[in-house]
Here is the input.
Amino acid sequence: MLRILCVRFSSIGDVLLTTPLVRALHRRHPEAELYFVTKRALAPLVVENTHLTGLLTLGPDERITELAQRLRGLGPTHGLDLHGSLRSTALRWLVPARWAGYSKRKLARTALISTKINLYGPHVPVPERYFEAANAAGLDVQPDGGPPDFFLAPAARAHMTHWLAEVGLDQKPFAALAPGAAHATKRWPMGHWRALAERLQELGFGIVAVGGPQDRELGEALGPGVVSAAGEFSLQETGACLARAAVAISGDTGVMHMATGVGTRVVALFGPTVEPFGFYPYTKRAVVLERDLSCRPCSAMGTERCPLGHHRCLTDVRPDQVAAAVQQLVA
Here is the structure.
């Protein structure tokens, strides 16, 4: 029997972008046992995934050797390293199996950032790059073109139904706004967010701010009439909120991929990062807004300040343009 380990320790978006591969593996090998390996904090992203046999997590204080011991106990036949980190490399040494990984295109990424020369060749989104690992391991799978899967527990959906009724949004279309990002250059200016929230309210939308605990202040700063849930929900509950939203507006962050995983329309704002990196929303129900500037891309994951000091890649994306994209998507 096939017993396949799919290893991706972080982060939110990266974990969710592995799920098209998980889905394809389950359909191609329905008899196989599929186990997902990730950090405990990110387990809610895949714990309800119906294509998986089981989930194994690395605790915050756990040694990789302890995790490896548990994985060896499964007797895996195949291991798919979908991370390419020191930890996942250690598992390849410590857990006997037929292991394979995928190319991160590091040389092409570095060349594009430093020289603006595109060496990527034909565009392959990251979710499809993960298939390289499976096929290198002889598992013969192909993408089906569908979006990521973020399966939600009934309890999370029920909690959201109750919460939306409490805040008066259970009978009204609302937009989910995600103003936060781990790095400053991925954040759309707060003045733009406030103007967008005001415009969307004029168009009849309720507004809910979403994000992690570090985004509480941003959510509360979006202006009057905005209900801020940033930092208040679990990952599952945030997914349930996004699933009820008419549209989600986000930068290049995990929230964007959470929204695509629950089938919600997305308007994505891209600044320092670009499409060849492979992380655009993996769905047809999305619009990406960006500016064609000669300084893009300036980093792979964003930085704390614009190298040129102007941050035009995002400041030049205007609130009225985002509102128009929202109207186009939900029409």
